[in-house]
Specification:
alpha+beta; Nuclear Transport Factor 2, Chain: A; 2 domains; eight-stranded antiparallel β-sheet; six-stranded mixed β-sheet
């Protein structure tokens, strides 16, 4: 195949004799995982998505780029050539993907203090056109020098070499996961991995609508994964002294359907977060289409979106502020969830939305919501939600006692299965692990978040289709931490 004469955006190294190189670090180390994520985000944003502001802020002022076919470039020529050759034609776009199994990392120290790292590996280059499979154009080796600047990593030197035509390789044009998505009529998969309390992997596979490639910052509707976000916002308010878990909600809100039933006086934030309100899941699912108590509040567990909405209205009335504003102040901003919203506000980029599909692969009409719901309809990216889970698994900046209460077995559901504050808790995993998890399901939406507090591992799965059983089985039994055990507990 004729090689494409573009500037292949790749990376790294300076003259070896000028560097003090330690031995390759373990792939389970924090530094390896950090650099693995850095590679993923840097190339997805700066190269594949052509986020030129991000690229400019993450390359050193004295960047040196060496390419075995296109020669040497300094920072200015590298940046300008990226704009000119890589980002000028979105209809026929060069794409870079890394062979994650090939990565090696070597730390750089100065008098015992880490100041950078060398990263080596293999990367693959493709041409992407709308409505077509990515076409492999070449494979090459790379070496990067990353420097640590104010807790951020910038690319200092780059080397891309040993380029080969795809005819000389056996790499598949379509990944196993993407083929699985196609076979099951699910266009897109978003996946985040948390290892030892850190977000180490963010990947999005497939398409938004069976045609347009899904970007790394694809926006998914996540259905009931809204609830853990709302629950933590509530716990933040409790931690700040703005709310008490046991205070009666009737002081701030009484649903009109309940005015003649004095049991509303028993409702508290605690009963809502543990799903013990006595409410149905949704009133529209009942014959009367009205909100009623189906049993005494506090008597037992029954999953209820109505309960979360009831609590939202009470909090908004008490504090005089909408939940969007409270979540932004107490959760989204501290966590860095800059691409998460409760509804289709003016910041929503519809061009990045993963449209939803039924089990036969038919497109489901997108319903846009214009007001917040504490139990459903959150719009977010897999990276933002990964940040959220990493934040939770590290204590969420809650006081220790409240954080422990969140993980406590507040209600028993069945053997080895409990509910805490906003999270289901599964026990009985190997090595003394227990899991905190939540799922989400709407037409054309299937989502899962799970974390293991003992090891601080976890993962997030977003899918924009209904026919998902085979995909979950593959991910859990072959790819994800303790996934086999979780699959057996289904």
């Amino acid at each position: 195949m004729k090689k494409i004469k573009t500037i292949i955006f790749a990376v790294v190294l300076t003259v070896y004799s000028t560097l003090q190189i330690n031995a390759q670090i373990d792939k389970n180390s924090d530094l390896f995982k950090t650099l693995k994520k850095q590679d993923s985000v840097f190339f997805e944003r700066g190269f594949n998505q052509c986020d030129l502001d991000y690229l400019e802020n993450h390359i050193a002022d004295d960047l040196k780029f060496y390419h075995d076919q296109s020669g040497f470039q300094d920072r200015n020529s590298f940046f300008n050539n990226t704009k000119k050759y890589i980002c000028s034609n979105p209809e026929k776009k060069p794409i870079r993907k890394v062979n994650a199994n090939s990565l090696e990392v070597f730390p750089l120290f100065n008098n015992g203090k880490l100041y950078g790292a060398i990263q080596k590996g293999e990367h693959h280059f493709y041409i992407r056109e709308n409505g077509k499979e990515d076409v492999l154009t070449s494979i090459a080796m790379f070496t990067h020098v990353w420097l640590l600047k104010s807790d951020d990593w910038v690319l200092s030197e780059a080397l891309s070499y040993d380029h080969k035509d795809p005819e000389t390789t056996s790499i598949d044009k379509v990944s196993e996961i993407e083929q699985l998505l196609k076979n099951n009529n699910v266009p897109a998969l978003g996946l985040s991995i948390i290892e030892n309390g850190k977000l180490t992997k963010v990947e999005v596979y497939g398409t938004l609508d069976k045609n347009q490639k899904a970007p790394y910052n694809t926006i998914f509707k996540v259905a009931s994964l809204t609830k853990p976000v709302f629950a933590l916002t509530v716990l933040k308010l409790v931690d700040k002294g703005l709310l008490d878990l046991q205070e009666p909600l009737y002081k701030y809100w009484i649903d009109p359907d309940l005015k003649e039933d004095n049991r509303y006086k028993k409702l508290t934030p605690y009963l809502v977060l543990t799903h013990q309100t006595g409410f149905p899941n949704w009133r529209y699912m009942t014959d009367s289409n009205k909100l009623t108590f189906q049993f005494e509040p506090g008597e037992k567990y029954q999953y209820s979106g109505e309960g979360f909405e009831y609590l939202r209205k009470a909090i908004e009335n008490k504090l005089g502020r909408p939940i969007e504003e409270l979540a932004q102040e107490f959760l989204f901003k501290p966590v860095g969830m800059n691409d998460t919203r409760f509804w289709w506000d003016v910041s929503m980029d519809e061009s990045r939305y993963a449209q939803n599909f039924d089990e036969n692969g038919n497109n489901i009409k997108t319903v846009k919501y214009y007001e917040a719901n504490a139990a459903a309809n959150l719009l977010t990216t897999v990276e933002d939600y990964g940040r959220f889970v990493a934040y939770v698994i590290n204590g969420a900046e809650l006081n220790k006692k409240l954080f422990q209460e969140m993980q406590k077995h507040q209600v028993k559901l069945r053997e080895n299965d409990f509910f805490g504050f906003g999270w289901e808790i599964l026990t009985g995993f190997s090595d003394g692990e227990f899991a905190m998890l939540h799922t989400g399901k709407d037409p054309g939406v299937s989502t899962l978040v799970i974390m293991f507090p003992q090891s601080k591992n976890g993962y997030i799965v977003f899918l924009n289709g209904d026919n998902v059983n085979n995909i979950y089985e593959y991910l859990l039994t072959q790819k994800l931490y303790l996934g086999n055990e979780l699959w057996d507990k289904r």
